[in-house]
Design goal:
The chain folds into three domains: 189 residues, MFS general substrate transporter like domains (Growth Hormone, Chain: A, Up-down Bundle); 55 residues, no CATH class; 242 residues, MFS general substrate transporter like domains (Growth Hormone, Chain: A, Up-down Bundle), CATH 1.20.1250. It is 71% helix and 1% strand. It contains 22 helices and two strands. The N and C termini lie close together (10 Å).
Amino acid sequence: MDSGESPGTSTGDSAAGPPGVPGGSSGGDPGSDPDSDPGGPAAAKTPARTAAPPARPRTAVVAALMLTMSLVALDGAIVSTAVPQIVGDLGGFAVFSWIFSGYILAGTVTLPVYGKLSDTYGRKPVLLLGISLFLIGSLLCAAAWNMAALIAFRILQGLGGGALQGTVQTLAADLYPLKERPRIQARMSAVWATSALAGPALGGLIASYADWRWVFLLNLPLAAGALWIINRHLVEPTRPPGRRGPVDWAGALGVFACGGLLLFALVQGGVTWPWMSAPSLGLLGAAAALGVLVVRIERRAAQPILPGWVWRRRTIAAVNLAMAALGLLMVAPMVFMPMYAQTVLGLGPTGAGLVTSAMTLSWPISAALAQHVYRRIGFRNTAATGVALAAVVLCSFTLLPYPAPVWQPALIMLLLGGALGLFQLPLIVGVQSTVGWEERGTTTASVLFCRNVGQSVGAALLGAVANATIAGRLADAPVPGLPTHLDDVAKALDQPQLLSPAAAEHLRRAVAAAGDHIFAGATVAAVAAAVVLLLVAPRRFPVLPEQREG
């Protein structure tokens, strides 16, 4: 198979990239491919050993992985529809957003920890632990007696979700050789697409005809089935002996604390308190100080949770940065588009959901076809082409007329899904193929961690842009009766009939202007991702020989 990639050598933790990459050096093997990431002196002395690939996976295992992924994919879509019922029963309207924020924060900050643990002890025990935590958390959420208890149990559920996200993606790479890996990745994309379509409908049925607690009880048979199948049928490849070392618990705690403070500051900043207030500055300062401490701990650890080679190798560093940009730009279509569709286009929640879901229809189709492109032009060029197309599509949103016909934003979402499928899948498949079994969990976790952090940064940054735009339009409003504070804008958007026709029209135009600015910011993120791929990533990914031959 000609994948357009260069065969590399398996590199150890001391592998270093060329100058210009964080932590890079100019050392390397003069005889190696110039596009590969050569190992440093330590790697030359002790070449890393890669576990033999397992036999072709049973259908039951693949089905269990898809079932496990559906737990994470369905969660947000179903829970969001039941929020009114939950708040009506438990109260706590002021903090209900932490039903989602707590889950996301717990899952994100634990990704690097689970990635390293899966490289040390194997994927199966980490996956079983994650499913068990998710199952227990779901059961406790269903039994929650007040909002504080529900948020605490959602955080526990998120601790399980963090293990599921990275480990399922890593196992998909373990079970399939490179030439067949797009098939399983396309199936995973299809799980997300199906969940995006079915989740709101299923959640709406539960919220309308049953108690909201069934939203969480629905997870129990799915989790129990996945737990049983994986425990019974999943057989991992034999790992090289003598590879285990002491777990870097100090580093794990540091990563958890630093990531937690950073994400907490990003989630609460501009919402609970102003960005330049003492709480925001204090949290961001504490996160920065902990970040410095984590770097020092990880440099001294024998088996660091966040090893330096994740950023010293050109390929992994470039993919991490590109995926962070993906997380940032995804805020525009996934967070803002539903509000735009309801406020500016005048659609109901169902119609707005259909406009947004157009992206989830084309994404898995594009991902399934991406292999035919990167086999000809390589992983990097395929991903760069995809994100460049995404930049064009995102920018086209700012050219829509006011008000736009519904088919135009729906078409933009459809095209955007196709472009992003061409962007993300080659990066995931490509970067996983440049590392051996013993580094794949850490690599996959770092990619997902950067994407999630990028999404949190994007929500904070683009949210601030939207707030500033709407506030400016309200301050210069030529008509009376508009809300004077941003806190009142949401109420006005929910009940536009309480405003005069002129005031409601001005507010709609303000939201449309905010959308233009948000999509312009997302366009900048897409362009930045393309630049990173072209300037930092090697032209040919250093795919390991055993990955190419699989």
